[in-house]
Amino acid sequence: MTLPHAGPMLEIQHLTVSYRNHPVLGDLSLPPLLPGELVALVGPNATGKSTLLRALAQLVPASGQVRWDGQDLLALSTTALARTIGYMPQSLPETAALNVLEVTLTAMQAQDLPAGKAQLAAIAVLERLGIDDLALRRLDQLSGGQRQVAALAQAIARDSPILLLDEPTSALDLRHQWRVMNTVRRLADDGHLVIAVLHDLALAAQWADRILVLDRGCLHACGTPQTALTPDMLRAVYGVEARVQRCEHGRTVVLVDGPAGSPRT
Description:
Layout: E1 10-19, E2 22-28, E3 38-42, H1 49-56, E4 63-68, E5 71-72, H2 78-84, E6 85-88, H3 100-107, H4 115-128, H5 144-156, E7 162-166, H6 174-189, E8 193-197, H7 201-207, E9 210-215, E10 218-223, H8 225-228, H9 231-238, E11 240-246, E12 252-259
Parallel strand pairs: 3-8, 3-9, 6-7, 7-8
Antiparallel strand pairs: 1-2, 1-4, 4-5, 9-10, 11-12
GO molecular function: ATP binding; ATP hydrolysis activity
Domain ABC transporter: 10-241
Protein name: Putative iron ABC transporter ATP-binding protein
């Protein structure tokens, strides 16, 4: 018998977000998401993945119920929300007035740490991500990939229980992809709930505990990589004929043969 989860959980029920009277997320409900999980949010372009994260971070108007440990997240003040959620956008703006260390320190303001302790903690975050050598570099002097890792640094610097990461690996080479995903995996293992938008299904299969598949603003599938990534799902959601192969050590590989309905080669 499965016992009910007794600790905090993220509950999302009937979440709706519209742009110009066009629903992007329509009455979206998800199964409870738990601390210690790395949840990959996948699906085609323009299906509401980034919008979901922005709604949870109060960056776009939303209706519905979003609760964490009994709190209504949609009703929290900005300061209270910052203590609960760390949000990583797809890229930080090129704000020439700030360097990487200053951006990271700004994200830590909700912790009310003494200045010296906050700076040491911020430098430790940059070291963890391998960008401590960029600490004094202005954002407008960074490459796209470097800005992306700096965005992750400011998200995790808050040490919030929930981390929302919007495409944390999209502009990174293979080595930096591994470093970022390994860091994210460890954050989940340390008890954070991490929700990451990922376009690379191989990364989602390798690192995530659960995969949520969004299609046109609705939840199409939810499960482990083994149960969520199937040829039927890929055909229905992505419009492709594909094979899903389970390799050694539990790795999952998706091989696309062509558009849905095309013969395999």
